[in-house]
């Protein structure tokens, strides 16, 4: 190689500089020295999550000056799921990480990848109703972060006042209200299919009604004994979405509207109902702080006025991967998250958007009106049911595409439900559940 | 008369069409990046009533503890290093492959084609990188980019090497050139114009790549520019001004590079280096 | 003037006189030139790829796997979105590569002729190549918004009601294909320009002397002699089109529903959902399909060129 002349070849010269840069790049990555230990925490990259995560890290560091928590982020949705799984499989996970509970939690092989927390003293602070969704086999693996929330119909109270409507208890009343709203020139039901996940609420948020009609549905569903397409209560969610589309009750731009636009429509009173998760509240608080109390929430109604339960979502968990080198420090941090101080720190950062699942955590009096609407349902167990994904590991990945099709009139409710039944099969087989092969 | 008509008529028509198809969308992007949040979200093609260029710039730059700055440094190193390596290795392969016929050629050609066709196998690749101690390092990602960029470079180089007359090689060999000298001294300079093309295209590809960094160089301290866009997309869902500002900022380096090489592309071509 | 894009090296044939001498001089083209590239390519591409092919016969959750034989392939072909995805993949590949070849060729002729503002035109057409797919996706999703987007507002001014570009099942795929062409035509143009510039001027001069019209010299000189460039553009854009993923993902995510799904997006969704074995099987299928299209095609393009 020494015959290579040096002049005339800027590219070669470039590669020499490049090599030098590689070296500097290398050495820049390695430097870390001080007495304080640093642990890393992987969270999703929504504004809300980052805000409370940074606050938690800061308050924890104030209480434990020798431990610093560094926030790492990952995308949400399917990409995020993949990052988490890849990191776990390659032993590259942060010291602690936040992730979903329920069905997605079951997919990350908790027994193989996570450190059990069952006998940790701070687990006593965690409410028993939460533990099942972070349990695999006989061990508990996570502490809750964030608050419980609901999947229901968020509505504009101002519009209801103006038109003299009252909160519907049955589907027929809901449709009746919607027609009146339409006559008043307001979009009755907001749908935002550009953000595909939002299309699933008619189905997912209806689950409390399914469970009320058929208390063993979740169990039977896991065992492949009931199907969405054939269970008369379960198919209702698909049918309601189809019915609402056919009645022309959606905003005109439902196909191209985004989640953010949907919230804007609701807040401004351009639309009256938005079936959505109450996760939306902190975002509304940031973007439209003066209008947050114009919004309320009610359960997706069924045909049975006597029950009318709310479908609730349990908060995500924070887990400890086996790969961490800083178990002690990480556990201290988990203890902080699962304490009253931890809740207060979150409330201070993003406000309280639902009940905490940690003992002794109170909500301030000035919670948003929609949270006040939700609380009675949370307090009475007969008036709520966790969403299906917290009761059964079986959840198909294509539901959001299917509900977009049903809600756009591309596919019928019956077809959609049948296709979804087909879709969950892969998931069940992947998890090796009995009764699916 | 008709020549002038053609020269100006077609030219003006082409200018008009490109303004509508290319300039306006880009202008829209730039204008939106200068607006404040409320105005930007109207998505109108209008002159900003309230200039927020500086504020948007600062906000995007300082978001997530100046992640964008780190990202620019990382992406620059990544791009420069991987493209430099890619160009040299690919040119060497292409030259021998084009000049020397052997029964292995079909297999090699097939492997090269596979590189264009097969998407990366993420987890096994991470295992290999971990085995080499290169996972989560910039050199590791550089080599990944090289591996996935080689095929395209080899194809372009080979196409152009075939236009270089073999007599040139032979003359050089008679003058006593060994293969290394022959290649670096005679062939490589002749490839200048195609090298510029490859550099431009691959720099853009590497700089704009987001899947490989996402998987093979995780962690915010290691972010590359496309990952910032990916992050901001979910963080700024309701702030098109910031999103577009980010797009604008991360488009500047490829643009500068293009402006820098633009003359050389033209010069290299008119010099007739590929005419043979 | 023989340029090949794949398989075999025909250049030797044109130099029959040199052929016998070549034997003694093999060392001028040493095999070790392959070595550095082969090392990187084998370790970081071939090895992981073959490892993943193994997993296509398993049910795999990254930490453990069960051998299930051909089940993944059966499952893959019974995906509800697959038939649609398969059709869409071919439509998308053919539409984008045809448009890139035709428009790229025309633009290249235009930009090598004596028109005004060549520098501006060349730059502006090439500029989108510099943008990232995600960026382009975001910008065009905004521009193509059916009610508020600039495109439909502009059409409304002249009295046309624009289609719902990305949300009408009939339009979604084509809309993304248009954006793909918008973004990629600059590269095709550059390759064509390189091809046209390398055609010796004497041909055009001779044609002019013979009184050939400019269309005639385009058809009889430019088109045949720029064939290597054409072959490169066809191969690259067809592979790109058949495999295309990022733009579709950035703009429609395969939607609305499954209507603009292509094979690559079906595979990606399976991957996202954690069906790693299944999605690897999908990758194998996609690889076979693309190979089945590209290899014969490149041989045909290559053969014709040798005859020419």
Question: Care to describe what's here?
Answer:
The complex is a heterotrimer of chains A (437), B (276) and C (308). Chain A is built from 19 helices and 13 strands. With 437 residues, chain A is an alpha/beta fold. In chain A, strands 7, 8, 9, 10, 11 and 13 form a six-stranded mixed sheet that branches. In chain A, strands 2-1-3-12-6 form a five-stranded mixed sheet. The N and C termini of chain A lie far apart (61 Å). Chain B is mostly helical and 276 residues long. Chain B has one domain (67-275): MetI-like (MetI-like fold, Orthogonal Bundle). Chain B has twelve helices and no strands. In chain B, helix 9 runs antiparallel to helix 12 and helix 11 (225-235) runs antiparallel to helix 12. The radius of gyration of chain B is 23 Å and the shape is globular. In chain B, 54% of the residues are buried. Chain C has helices at 11-14, 19-22, 35-55, 71-77, 82-112, 118-126, 133-143, 150-157, 172-197, 201-209, 214-225, 227-243, 246-251, 263-272, 276-307, and strands at residues 58-60, 65-67. A two-stranded antiparallel sheet of chain C has the order 1-2. In chain C, helix 4 packs across helix 15 (276-307), helix 9 (172-197) runs antiparallel to helix 12 and helix 12 (227-243) runs antiparallel to helix 15. The termini of chain C are close together. The interface between B and C is large, with 109 and 100 residues.
| Biggest sheet character of chain A | 6 strands, mixed
Helix content of chain A: 40-55%
Helix content, binned percent of chain B: over 70%
Instruction: Give the CATH topology of chain B.
Output: MetI-like fold
Sketch the major β-sheet of chain B: none
Globular, elongated, flat, extended or rod-shaped: what is the shape of chain A?
Answer: globular
CATH superfamily of chain B: MetI-like
Layout of SSEs?
The complex is a heterotrimer of chains A (437), B (276) and C (308).
Chain A: H1 10-30, E1 37-44, H2 47-63, E2 67-74, H3 77-89, E3 96-99, H4 103-106, H5 110-113, E4 135-136, E5 139-140, E6 142-145, E7 149-156, H6 157-163, H7 171-183, E8 187-189, H8 201-204, H9 207-213, H10 217-222, H11 236-246, H12 259-268, E9 271-277, H13 280-287, E10 295-298, E11 310-313, E12 316-319, H14 327-337, H15 340-350, H16 369-379, E13 384-386, H17 388-391, H18 399-407, H19 413-430
Parallel strand pairs in A: 1-2, 1-3, 8-9, 11-13
Antiparallel strand pairs in A: 3-12, 4-5, 6-12, 7-9, 7-10, 7-11
Chain B: H1 2-34, H2 37-40, H3 53-99, H4 105-117, H5 122-132, H6 138-161, H7 166-174, H8 179-190, H9 192-208, H10 211-216, H11 225-235, H12 240-270
Chain C: H1 11-14, H2 19-22, H3 35-55, E1 58-60, E2 65-67, H4 71-77, H5 82-112, H6 118-126, H7 133-143, H8 150-157, H9 172-197, H10 201-209, H11 214-225, H12 227-243, H13 246-251, H14 263-272, H15 276-307
Antiparallel strand pairs in C: 1-2
Helix pairs in contact in C: 4-15, 5-9, 5-12, 5-14, 9-12, 12-15, 14-15
